[in-house]
Amino acid sequence: MKVTIAIHRHLAGVSLAAVASMALAGAVRAQDAATPPTAAPQAQTEDAGAARNADIVVTGSRITTSGFNAPTPTTVIGEEQIANNAQPNIFNTVAQLPSLQGSTGASTGTFSTSSGQQGLSSFSLRGLGPIRTLTLLDGQRVVGANVTGVPDISMFPQLLVKRVDVVTGGASASYGSDAVGGVVNFITDTRFEGFKGNILGSITKYGDDETALVQAAWGKSFLDDRLHVVLSGEYDHEGGVGAGDFGTDLAGSRDWYRATTLMNTGQLNNGLPQFNYRDYAQPYQYARYGLINNGPLQGIAFDRNGTPYNFNYGSGGQPLGNGQVSNCFRGNSFCQGGDLSGAPGSGASLKSALERINGYTRIGYDFADDNEAYVTVNVAQVKTSNQPSPGYNRPSLTVQCANPFLPQLVRDRCATAGITEFSFGSSNGAFPDPRVHTDRRQYRFVGGLKGKIGVGGTDWNYDAYYEHGITISDIRVRDIVLQNRYVAATNAITLNGAVVCADPAARAAGCQPINIFGGFTPSDAALAYVAPHENGPFQHTKLTQDVASLNFSGNPFELWAGPVSVAFGGEYRREFYRVNADPYGAGVSPLSPNSPDYPADPLLNSTLGSNWAAGNYKNGRGKYEVWEGYLEVDLPLIDSDAMGRANLNGAARVTNYSTSGTVWTWKVGGTWDTPLDGIRLRAVTSRDVRAPNLSELFAAPTVTTLPNFNDPFRNQAVQVFQNTIGNTNLKPEVARNTELGIVLARPSWLPGLSLSFDYYNIKLSGVVSTLSADQIVRFCFEGNQAFCGGFQLDGPQGTNFVNVQPFNLASWKTSGFDIEASYQWQQPLGLPGSFTVRALGTHIRKFIVNAGIAGVDPVDQAGANNGNTPDWKWLAVQTYDSGRFSFTVQERWISDGTFGNQYVVCQSSCPASTTNHPTIDYNRMKGAFYVDIGATFKFGENLSIYGKVDNLFDKDPVAAPQTNTGLDINPALYDTLGRIYRAGVRFNF
């Protein structure tokens, strides 16, 4: 099979690809044996020569035959491209591709306590989510790093990766479930020989996220080149970007946070917009060290020393004594401006601190020519830490006027007003800040056989392997309070001359009183009672994956236009998970005795759990099995000078899921190299599926605290628990994916030029999705009784909840196109080497989400920059490479958009505001333009130094306003860290 190094998206359906790329070398593709290789820099030629006898499997198909042209566009990112982008994680390089939208990494999920996805690097193609992108390692499945089933790229042996294939289209018929958006396949160098390493350091302009990466790999052949041993290891420490303080103070000297919020006026039909876009949103139900928020004393706050003062409300507001404030926004309890010191939004980490260790071994033995038996062992650990918020935000607490910690001035005011208690809100700024620590350990073992065998005079490629993967994931949350204990500790009395907890049962269980009127740090004993550090929220998860796979590929006979290529095979897969959580969160069965570490407490719910303010993990387990078989055929139709060359490719797969039965997938496509110089046409349509994952089927109930939830029935903010549960009756999602493309590849009249255009259309039905807690309540409020049975908003303290559960009701429709262009000059302006310009862009025409529920209107999310699907996403690269020195400029661009396309923009004479179409006064979210530069200098063949600056102009993120007190950014689209300096050295012996 002939192999060449290419930089274009053309002949094998391989996309031009170089996303994060900074150089031409490294994109490998299968090429027609009759097509002569194009000119390439010397390094590329050497690489091609070294690989000349290797079979290159392009991930867009299971067909491995020489000369095959896959109809599905496949972007290929080469080894040198990965190196030149100078990232501590390959994930960061691949995620820059415009076709990838909504990928997760160390900068996403840092606001969450309960998800367990902090620092989890996973890809999302076409904005369909990581669970709809199949990620493979050497064409093989990888055990999930989370119960959603998505793997963590941080755990791959990254220094050994030769290339990454990104299939931008449905591939379920070839590769199985989850390949709805496409496939990302990491190809490693299984025959590496020598010793190489990489040392990288980086730091932001603000002096944080200090990163140190050390990678090394060794390979050697023994026994007359029949035994091949490859070892690699790496250590990566990323300091992360910590949390800021309350108010608008961010980590370092970053000054872009403005607490931008969509203020809810609470008015739905008065001719004015319901939501107003405003900076410096001030919550008026609580302050940093406490605020009386209702009754005749409303507006009295407390400073650090416990001294009462009149709170400074924004908007010129004055307390009305009924929990509301004049001139402010009642719907979500905000003023504008004033005292922002209690707002917790800026207290979330901008990037999780991360530490990862990875060890990899592969041993292969050629027991015959072109036949190998091998084993691989991959052991990795990723640990993260982040702060989701500061202190403990408690907007509604009943305080007794007789509380001995209460200043006498306030007690006197109580007496004058004739009250014995009042409502109180505090950010508890003196409490320790909560931290979420995750520890994921992965053990992956693969044994396999691959090679060629002769059957009936024809050579057949075969690949058989068995994989067993284990992921152990632990989540520990520190300094989170037990809510009922907190309430008991705040309710103090004087007894026999000592200040104690008022509740005798709480006192007997160890309650220690705390002073919440000021910045007084609770005693160690009080903190041990309210927020037991050693027994904080905890979740231990074990996931296992077993895969047995057998695949064949060959050319059984020839037709008039060439050999017919066939691939077929089967696979068995078993997925299992078990999760155990702490009894305070999960509850303890009444049939089982309480653990001595979790003594019985009359204030806590020992059966149902959910006692923590956040991080109420639950116990659970589940499994499913999959049996499947597939057949893929490639038929050559035309091969002549007059008509060009064309082929028809088709595949079908039958899959049986133990949870939901049998489903078929298929694809039909083809390519045509037209007689016109350099022009190729390609098209493919497919039926693809995604089976519900373990989390969706068997998820232990997840409880999330919503501290400032809008209750439309009483027009006030309340604290509720959002209970998310699984659904064992879910069925596979089914997608119809169609792609049409035209390519101009190195025409003879301009051989340095490549252009391509690919249109895609995806229709996904039976989508596993849920409505938000706010939507459920709002639809009930608007009269839809079907939504009224799953929530409670006016119950006793700590009992309010909204139940959320997934169903196969929704449908998604998205379409758009990819554009790619490049041009290469050899010896530009008489200089040695080459100069290349390249641009890749993806335009999303529409992304319509239909909830499939009566009364819920479809929403087009294309161009909603508060999500993951901007109208346009571009990447452009300009590279000069002399062979010894290279310099690259890279631009990344996201188009302007909206907060959400469901809004109706108006200033006056507005229509009635509804949940489907709320009115808003402003709905524009600017895009972003980033510039990166990098350079590499080689000292001979074995040593090079490199440097890079990301976000050269230190572009601040654009505000992504919310309707609560969260950090108003969208790290899935925007750079939230600022300018980053990187430098390193590579060696190869």
TrEMBL record:
Region Disordered, residue ranges: 32-51
UniProt superkingdom: Bacteria
Gene3D superfamilies linked: TonB-dependent receptor, beta-barrel domain (2.40.170.20), TonB-dependent receptor, plug domain (2.170.130.10)
InterPro entries: Beta-barrel_TonB, Beta-barrel_TonB_sf, Plug_dom, Plug_dom_sf, TonB-dep_rcpt-like, TonB_rcpt_CS
Composition skew (Low complexity), residue ranges: 32-48
Leader sequence residues: 1-30
Residues of the TonB-dependent receptor-like beta-barrel domain: 454-952
Keywords, alphabetical: Cell outer membrane, Membrane, Signal, TonB box, Transmembrane, Transmembrane beta strand, Transport
Motif (TonB C-terminal box): 972-989
TonB-dependent receptor plug domain sequence ranges: 69-183
Protein location: Cell outer membrane
Membrane topology, as annotated: Multi-pass membrane protein
Family to which the UniProt record says this protein belongs: Belongs to the TonB-dependent receptor family.
Name listed for the protein in its UniProt record: TonB system transporter
Organism annotation: Sphingobium fuliginis (strain ATCC 27551)
